[in-house]
Amino acid sequence: MPSLRNLWGRITGKDANEHFPKQQGKALGALGDFLSAQPYGLYANLPQGQLFKVIDEDGRVILGLTVERKDNVEQNEVTLWHPGTGTNIHFKNSGNLDIDTAVGNGDININTVNANLTASEDVNVTCKNADIIASDDVDVTCNNASVTAALKADVNSDTSTVTCLTSLAVVAPVMTFVATTSLTFTSALTSFVGPTMFTGAMTNNGKNVGDTHGHTQANDSGGNTEANTGGVV
Ligand SMILES: [Fe+2]
After folding, report:
1. Structural domain range at position 194
2. How many whole angstroms from 220 Cα to the centroid of ligand 1?
């Protein structure tokens, strides 16, 4: 029987999902099932029409071959790519590792236990919307934190604490504090600058200084009883 090694053919069927990768192909005008050999650690479900070469004497094992090239790959560079969509991982001569799925209009999905990203300099994220969903905590530790929202910033939580070592300034044309139970200012000196209106009972060290407070008055020096002034008019 003549050696079938080095025959060329083309794939006609997808991986049959059997124990070993097996795909239908056509070589020398005849259809057959072929074991698709792959470089260790790599796997591709070869597409329809993919060129292959028979690599064993019996004509059962094939190697899918690509004669296409990804654009813009310099000499010495390495790329792993999808010839159909163009998505790729590109190891560049500059030392950069470029991952591009936008060229194929696709996403990058990473499924892992813990994701650790260490950058000696900057981490820059540029996107349309950024969502961080954590089932437990989100901790941000830094020297300076700035949040700039062109429209609005909402903080919704069960309990929130803002701790500043030096100062906290909140600047807005209109500020509203709504506390259904209590609101407490504790400081060495609290100042309200500008017209101030209080609605409701006012006490200072337990004494009524609001609109319902009154005065008591002892008898005058002649012993005459002085009437209570009646408080604030
Ligand atoms: Fe008074």
Report:
1. 122-207
2. 19
